[in-house]
Design a protein that fits this description.
single chain, alpha/beta, 6-stranded mixed sheet, 5-stranded parallel sheet, 15 strands, binds pyridoxal-5'-phosphate
């Protein structure tokens, strides 16, 4: 494979026009509704052995420079330095914890104690740098739909970043109390948080519609604003997520847990398909990943897809204890569909049109064959809770509900296949973010306690200090209380911007 080559980005729905990474970061979503994809996946230049002793920041540079080829070394290192600093409560940034025959890659040590911080702490800096590089004069308006974690992580990333405003929509009754409290207490004059009467897919669809509204776009430009997206469809989010898979493998090698060239499996609790897609890209860069294990909760659209080749969102939407995975349209899957369709924008566009018209599409057998590296399964609510309790009782290690979905699915995978390869489980949130569900899983007696009593009890049980992100909201004042109907999202945005 070629290295050191420029990577350009085209839309999954019309790939004739190619743009630079910085332009793709600024746009977020392509005008045709497609997602930007790299025209090739670069290979790692350094071996895992060479990277075994590197810091997270150094590995971040090694990975990101290969994708963001129009950034200078200084620009990129500057972004990395500002992102992965003391906002994280551990110098390792993403520690690996061994428990019960698996390695939990803890991606929750950032400002909002969930894995979205891994990307959203760097995205604002990538975006501001991209704006400067492209002589963008307008103020950047970040518009985001969230199922809970993205919202707070984006707010924390963009709060008070000069030249930006951030507007976050979340399903009013579809996020955990702590997630909601985290968002509605967000400081920063440029931050706006709005609850909608609807679910996450309604919020996401509303945001997509606003993004593709040409009239609104022109009006915005006249008033000196331009939209961008912090959702996981932005390649400025996807690329930083590849880093921790490279980092995890390099560390396992450095610690003597795997031999040079030894393959591992990764298990990813999946919603929008961004995290696992990053693992897939890491694999294509040369990271020795055998199986990509895609774990779903009861919203098991992806499990059905991997089993049958049919993606079908026509089903009941379930509210589960892993709300960040309560998703029926996994946006980032489009990037995989495009690829297995032979990098064919026309074919991909047809599938996506079917999805939007009928809520369903069926991939061909030839496409299905290219998915053999993926394994999909799901865990119901009981299995998720049992996984938390069993792991705690066995090892004293406490995981959150999302990570537990992955743990449960990994158990099923091992039972089904007998595959005992070393396995990394992406641990996507701190148990302190979903304290009630976690504590109830351990023992139903905890249900009578208040949220913050539970936090203190969890701290005692797990022998882990209460994270700052939680301490902060104990007493913080609610500063955002706007609620709107799902049909009113556009007007709400116009009102906020005063246009
Ligand atoms: C967002 C999120 C997920 C799902 O990640 P995707 O990239 O959307 O698949 C899983 N767990 C937690 C805690 C999250 O916040």
């Amino acid at each position: 494979m070629v290295t050191g080559m420029e990577v350009l980005y085209g839309s999954t729905r019309n790939d004739e026009k190619k743009i630079q990474a910085s332009q793709a970061i600024l746009k977020g979503l392509s005008e045709d509704g497609g997602l930007f994809v790299p025209d090739h996946i670069p290979s790692l230049e350094k071996s895992l052995k060479d990277m075994a002793d590197m810091s997270y920041q150094e590995i971040a540079y090694e990975v990101m420079k290969l994708f963001l080829t129009d950034f200078t070394e200084e620009e990129l290192k500057n972004c990395i330095r500002k992102a992965y600093d003391s906002k994280f409560d551990t110098e390792e940034i993403a520690p690996l914890v061994e428990a019960d025959h698996a390695y939990y890659l803890e991606l929750f040590h950032g400002a909002t104690i969930a894995f979205k911080d891994m990307a959203l702490s760097i995205l604002p800096h990538l975006m501001i740098t991209s704006a400067k590089k492209n002589h963008v004069e307008e103020e950047i308006v970040i518009l985001t739909a969230t199922s809970g974690d993205t919202g707070k992580a984006a707010l924390a990333g963009f709060a008070d970043v000069e030249g930006t405003k951030i507007i976050v929509f979340y399903p009013k009754n579809g996020v955990s109390p702590i997630q909601e409290k985290q968002m509605v207490t967000q400081k920063g004059d440029n931050t706006f948080v709005i609850g909608i009467h609807g679910n996450f897919d309604d919020a996401q669809t509303g945001v997509k519609n606003i993004f593709s509204d040409k009239e609104l776009e022109e009006k915005m430009l006249r008033k000196g604003f331009r939209f961008s997206s912090a959702n996981s469809i932005n390649i400025g989010r996807l690329v930083p997520q590849i880093v921790y898979y490279v980092f995890a493998c390099a560390k396992l090698l450095g610690n003597g847990k795997i031999a040079d060239g030894e393959e591992i499996n990764v298990v990813v609790p999946t919603g929008n398909f961004g995290n696992i897609l990053a693992a897939f890209y890491a694999r294509n860069m040369g990271v020795p990943i055998a199986k990509l294990i895609c774990a779903s909760n009861e919203n098991k659209v992806l499990y059905d897809f991997f089993r049958t080749g049919s993606y079908d969102r026509n089903r009941e939407f379930m509210l589960t204890s892993s709300p960040s995975m309560d998703i029926l349209i996994s946006s980032n899957l489009e990037r995989l569909i495009y690829r297995i369709a032979g990098n064919d924008a026309k074919k991909n566009g047809e599938f996506m049109a079917a999805l939007s018209q009928n809520g369903q599409y069926q991939i061909t057998e030839e496409m299905s064959r290219q998915l053999s590296d993926f394994y999909g399964n799901y865990a119901d609510e009981q299995e998720t809770a049992d996984t938390i309790r069993t792991l705690y009782e066995k090892t004293g290690y406490v995981i959150d509900t999302h990570t537990a979905v992955a743990g449960a699915v990994y158990g099923k995978y091992r039972e089904e296949t007998g595959d005992t390869r070393k396995t990394v489980i992406a641990s996507t949130a701190s148990p302190f973010k979903f304290t009630r569900s976690v504590m109830n899983a351990i023992d139903s007696k905890y249900d009578s306690m208040t949220d913050f009593e539970l936090v203190d009890e969890l701290s005692r049980l797990a022998n882990v200090k209460v994270p700052n992100a939680i301490e902060e909201i104990r007493t913080a004042a609610v500063v955002h209380n706007t609620v709107c109907e799902k049909e009113e999202m556009k007007e709400t945005v116009e009102k906020i911007l005063g246009i």
